[in-house]
Amino acid sequence: MNNQSMWSLKFSTAALVLIPVAVGINYIGKFIAGVLKLPLWLDSIGTVLAAMLGGPIVGALAGAINNIIYGFTDPISFVYAITSVAIGLAVGILFYKGFISGWGKAMVAGLIIGLVATVVSTPLNIGFWGGQTGNVWGDALFAFILANTDSTWLASLLDELVVDVPDKLLVVLISYGIYKGLPRNFVQLYNNNDKVETLD
Description:
By secondary structure, the protein is mainly alpha-helical. It is built from nine helices and two strands. The chain crosses the membrane at residues 6-28, 40-65, 77-96, 108-128.
């Protein structure tokens, strides 16, 4: 897929249907992580999968809509729509440039996405939560670093890093596994630009 079509605002019907499906997958991932009390979020599997199939714009839309819906019950989620958009864009770009074309590359991409999410989320954490993430493991590290360095920025960055990098690594690998398991004719729906809908 060339750069022009990668950034196109003309979406196939399949791509438009993919967005609510991605939001549902995100919710399931978040629910499972909550039930199992995992030190991860797993709430962006749908966003990553949407970006792989539909490109960066579709991934960004899926991520943003996901946070907007969460925001009705948890208002702070609105703010983190910025992070979800960044994840969707980054995955879509990496995938269409061929950087997620095998398990090894998917692992590297997961680390990159984790760093992107960390860089975007850290200022938000500082602005809204005093630097903490709300994750038990990360916040324990935050308290330790803050006590020993008196640097809120360093403590917040490392707090986010130790949660986001493993989370996004696992999310990208799960999403890539799902993508690889999809029927070929289903994947081809997202490479067919014959029938498109425009958002204008």
